[in-house]
Specification:
The complex is a heterodimer of chains A (218) and B (746). With 218 residues, chain A is an alpha+beta fold. Chain A is built from seven helices and eight strands; from the N terminus they run βαββααββααβαββα. Chain A has a domain of 124 residues: Alpha-Beta Plaits. Chain A has a four-stranded mixed sheet. In chain A, strands 2-3 form a two-stranded antiparallel sheet. Chain A has a two-stranded antiparallel ribbon with strand order 4-5. In chain A, a hairpin with a 4-residue loop joins strand 4 and strand 5. In chain B, the strands form seven sheets. Chain B has a seven-stranded mixed sheet, with helices on both faces. A six-stranded mixed sheet of chain B has the order 24-26-25-28-23-27. In chain B, a hairpin with an 8-residue loop joins strand 1 and strand 2. In chain B, 30% of the residues lie in helices and 17% in strands. Chain B has 746 residues and is an alpha/beta fold. Chain B has four domains: 65 residues, Phosphorylase Kinase, domain 1; 274 residues, 3-Layer(aba) Sandwich (Rossmann fold); 185 residues, Dimethylsulfoxide Reductase, domain 2; 123 residues, Barwin-like endoglucanases, CATH 2.40.40. The chains are: A alpha+beta (218), B alpha/beta (746). Chains A and B meet through helix 1, helix 5 and helix 7 of A and strand 3, helix 2, helix 7, helix 8 and helix 13 of B.
């Protein structure tokens, strides 16, 4: 049982509508006892309706595993970083602090860290992860590179990220606009004026220094 | 007697809404079977598989083969199964009893049916057949809505039947009939991908019809420009190419102005207009009174954006226009919808693979539920109850004398006025919660209190049913089978997953049991939904909404059948108005459903809203939905994970307005109109016009914005004007009483 290499996970925050179908679908699974393993938050609801879904990025060299003193976090051969193994996890929370994407969560009452394992029970038997199956705007997509490039010609997948000195490559991809994205609509008054102010929130895109996502490789 | 038997809080303590003790399925618990069916909520009607074990729905599995949603679901779809096995579920009939703490005591089903029949007979003997009214709903299967229409006319012999689609699809339906002669979205959604421009007029697509978001954004990936017209920046508006921040209630002015610019610039299809439409000249003359400067002044949309909209729409080679309640919930709702249709007809872009027009339906059967006779003026197959030919045909199907068929009744709100006036003395309701969902709902409450006898059929005790003398336990969607027609005009099949619990009965059986107890069983002896559907096929035959060639088997084989489908060997009609197509009205004269085969331009004039913002009430109040709740919340306010997402209504307002009024984010604020006042927490966001506030409408009582809304209605469609009225807003003196007394969802 393994997740086929040609099937990949693609996250496109620009498509997120904040509906939480992914979160609710995730709670249906017993392997993490009904806790959602996906984070979905408004960036700043007062200023925008933009929300962002975060799944485990499944790093090639997982920081969470590297800092785990109990060696409880394993990366399987198919590139999936598994949730903490119960017999080993000592619930120290090192992984929670170390993960650059803020993914793992500590469940103190159960004395274990749990995180997204890319629906291993589904993906290892040929199904899509539950969140990517239900996502009504397909901000979460699971399929091949050929499929995503046909579906999303205006953006491209990236899986290399820099956090300070640390460069991280991941099995999960984030879709990045090929051209600087048009400013999003965030304040109605900007659209009401004859001459809208030249300000807009921009998603991190390729070439935006000193953005932490700047030196992405594609 | 239809006053509340005891204090509302006492009823709430007994009957909820309580949150489901379950919050999730039993995951690894293996189901006995998977039932392929559809979601019970909105008009998208996503395919879903329900996991069933021991006569209980224990979870869901995506249905990736169903072509419309391919496994996709919104959070309501994901958690919809939690409405089953719910502690609030009505398992017996209930009879009003002020002497018991909860206000109701159980009664045996058979005794309740007998009692309901006795009361109906008593009222009809004293006051005539028209003293009984019947309210239905568009979340029911088409079989049930057909049966209700027949029950009113044949069994009760009353003209007074109407349905909650009066709050939903009637402006669109009336406009479609006036312009095209047929009331249905023109294309399947898959046609959208590859189009040049998509105009979304007054539709919070991402929250109210989430799956449509993916279609629109897939079209955008391939180059479509997206125009969104809304007083709020909803998620679909956030990334649109052109956002039109329209002032509530001004939509017809915007459409007239855009069409005027199209005419001025020659961006219209003269050949199409000349050969396939009538009425353009009058429309052009009207639009000439709307120069862009006037449009900008009235609508609050800048001139440059109006010009840009006209250019994008006018110069496109292919296009889609969608609208929903945002432009339809107005006393000018039909005119607003006609305004959009004028833009479509002037472009000539209709009846083509990448070009079309559609109205986004709200309820599960918002389409099918408006076609087969639960509307006050309608008979099956979209026939007209005032048309002698139509009456004759349906009377023959129902095996009654045409003269025994009542004439047209009145709309649902007018029925409450007739209750208030003492003309309607008895009420039967199903699938409708008017105490929450109708505007100026304190009037609705006062009217309910005047009823001599009220029987409600429901699965939970909704807010309106608390006024009932008798409550008959009906069925959840998953406890019955039947068809619904979803947003694209695709007739699909709801499949039964579990049996009704306790003494609850499938709704069609309840109706038939009533007919039998009334001693008028003629025409109400069906043994299954399939048998009802077979009669409906005959009744719709030859009508505009022709289902005669649709069978349960064909639906299953084809994953749905688009009506019209006039014969057994007909595959259905995914796309309307294709060149060379024919229909029973035009009879070869053209592709639109009029005797000359031509589409109609209609002058779509702007009229100011009733009770518009004024010096006294200077802010626009508009209402709508949130993604985690559905309509009056009877089901979704009982599902814990959905309640947690957005527990209580909040007043959305812009920081500019908040600053001016001294209202902080999260603080209590009181909104007041000429009808009443409610106090809710404020939510300060830049995503709404500073002259407008928004309140979602899913909650009852002191949390209900329909205490504030105005009962003005469109003169043609009778849809209420939910989307605008003048309002005041001020910081509240303190928290409202309900904050201590009630749980969030109550």
């Amino acid at each position: 049982m393994s997740v086929p290499q040609h099937l990949e996970f693609f996250v496109d925050p620009s498509r997120c509508i904040g509906c939480r179908a992914c979160v609710e679908a995730c709670t249906e699974c017993d392997t993490h006892r009904g806790e959602p393993m996906i984070h979905l938050e408004y960036i700043d609801r007062g200023a925008s309706v933009q929300t962002v879904p975060v799944v485990c990025m499944h790093c090639e060299q997982p920081t969470c595993a590297e800092v785990c003193p109990a060696d409880a976090i394993k990366r399987t051969g198919d590139g999936v970083v598994q949730s903490a193994r119960k017999p080993r996890c000592i619930a120290c929370g090192n992984c929670v602090v170390a993960c650059p994407f803020g993914v793992p969560e500590l469940y103190i009452d159960r004395a274990i860290m749990m995180k997204c394992d890319m629906c291993y029970d589904r993906t290892s038997v040929g199904k899509k992860p539950m969140c990517a199956t239900v996502c009504p705007s397909q901000a979460l997509y699971f399929g091949t590179r050929e499929q995503i490039s046909a579906l999303r010609p205006q953006s491209m997948p990236t899986n290399t990220f820099r956090f300070g000195e640390q460069v991280i490559r991941t099995r999960v991809n984030v879709m990045v606009p090929r051209r600087p994205a048009a400013p999003a609509q965030i304040d109605v008054t900007a659209a009401m004026d004859e001459r809208p102010p030249r300000r807009a929130v921009r998603l991190p895109v390729v070439g935006d220094d000193p953005d932490p996502f700047a030196e992405v490789e594609v | 007697m239809a006053t509340l038997p005891v204090d509302d809080m006492a009823i709430t303590r007994a009957f909820g809404p309580h949150l489901s003790p379950r919050t999730r399925g039993s995951g690894s618990d293996e189901p006995e079977r998977l039932v392929k069916t559809h979601c019970c909520f909105c008009g998208q009607q996503c395919g879903i598989q329900l996991k069933v074990k021991n006569n209980e729905v224990i979870g869901f599995e995506p249905w990736e083969d169903f072509p419309f949603n391919r496994g996709m679901l919104c959070p309501k779809g994901v958690k919809r199964y939690l409405q089953g096995s719910h502690p609030d579920r009505l398992l017996t009939a209930l009879v009003r009893d002020p002497s018991v703490e909860s206000g109701f005591r159980p009664m045996s089903y058979d005794a309740a049916i007998e009692r309901a029949a006795r009361e109906i007979r008593r009222i009809q003997d004293q006051h005539g057949p028209a003293a009984i009214g019947l309210l239905g709903g568009a979340s029911l299967t088409t079989e049930k809505t057909y049966l209700l229409g027949k029950f009113a006319r044949v069994c009760l012999k009353t003209p007074y039947i109407d349905y909650n689609g009066r709050l939903c699809m009637v402006s669109a339906g009336a406009a479609n009939k006036k312009a095209f002669g047929i009331d249905r979205t023109t294309n399947p959604w898959s046609d959208m991908v590859g189009t040049d421009v998509i105009w979304v007029a007054g539709s919070n697509v991402a929250e109210c019809s989430p799956i449509t978001t993916n279609y629109i954004w897939q079209a955008r990936e391939l180059g479509a420009k997206v125009i969104v017209q809304d007083p709020r920046i909803t998620p679909i508006a956030r990334t649109c190419d052109l956002y039109l921040p329209i002032r509530p209630g001004r939509d017809a002015a915007l459409f007239a102005g855009v069409l005027q610019l199209m005419i001025e610039n020659g961006w219209i299809d003269r050949d199409f207009i000349e050969q396939e439409t009538v009425g353009f000249e009058a429309v052009a003359a009207y639009c000439a009174t709307w120069p862009v400067s006037r449009v900008a002044e009235v609508t609050g949309v800048p001139e440059r954006s109006i010009r840009k909209a006209a250019e994008l729409w006018g110069t496109a080679k292919s296009s889609f226009l969608f609208h929903a309640r945002g432009i339809e919930h107005h006393s000018n709702g039909v005119q607003n919808a006609l305004g959009t249709i004028n833009l479509v007809l002037a472009s000539g872009r209709i009846g083509k693979p990448k070009s079309g027009y559609g109205t986004i339906v709200g309820q599960a059967n918002g389409q099918g539920g408006r076609e087969h006779g639960q509307k006050c003026d309608q008979l099956p197959g979209w026939r007209d109850i005032s048309n002698p030919e139509h009456r004759k045909y349906i009377a023959s199907v129902w095996n009654i004398k045409e003269s025994d068929l009542p004439g047209p009744g009145v709309d649902a709100y007018e029925m409450f006025r007739k209750i208030d006036a003492g003309e309607i003395k008895g009420l039967i309701s199903i699938c409708f919660n008017p105490k929450v969902s109708l505007p100026d709902n304190q009037f609705v409450t006062r009217a309910l209190e005047k009823l001599d006898f009220y029987v409600a059929i429901d699965f939970f005790l909704n807010d309106t049913a608390r006024h009932a003398d008798l409550v008959l336990p009906g069925s959840l969607q998953e406890e019955d089978e039947g068809t619904v027609t979803q947003v694209e005009g695709r007739v699909i099949k709801i499949n039964k997953a579990v049996d009704c619990p306790g003494e609850a009965r499938q709704d069609w059986r309840v109706i038939q049991d009533l007919a039998k107890a009334l001693g008028r069983p003629h025409g109400f002896t069906f043994d299954s939904p399939r048998a009802i559907f077979d009669e409906l096929r005959v009744a719709s035959k030859g009508g505009v909404a022709d289902y005669s060639g649709i069978t349960y088997e064909k639906i299953e084989q084809q994953m749905g059948v688009f009506w019209p489908c006039p014969s057994d060997d007909h595959p259905g009609t995914p796309r309307l108005f294709e060149p060379g197509s024919d229909n029973p009205v035009a009879k070869g004269k053209g592709r639109f459903y009029f005797p000359d085969g031509k589409a109609r331009f209609n002058v779509a004039d702007y009229r100011p809203a009733v009770d518009d913002a004024s010096a006294e009430y200077p802010i626009f109040l508009t209402t709508g939905r949130v993604v985690s709740q559905f309509l009056s919340g009877t089901q979704t306010r009982r599902i814990g994970p959905l309640v947690k997402h957005y527990p209580e209504p909040r007043i959305e307002l812009h920081p500019r307005l908040a600053e001016k009024l001294g209202i902080a984010d999260g603080a209590w604020a009181t909104a007041e109109t000429r009808r009443g006042a409610i106090t809710l927490r404020a939510m300060v966001v830049t995503t709404i016009r500073p002259d407008t506030i928004f309140i979602p409408y899913h909650w009852p009582g002191d949390k209900s914005p329909n205490r504030l809304t105005v009962a003005a209605q469109d003169p043609i469609s009778k849809i209420p004007q939910y989307k605008v009225c003048g309002c005041r807003l001020r910081p509240a003196d303190g928290p409202p009483a309900y904050a201590q007394e009630r749980e969030a969802q109550q």
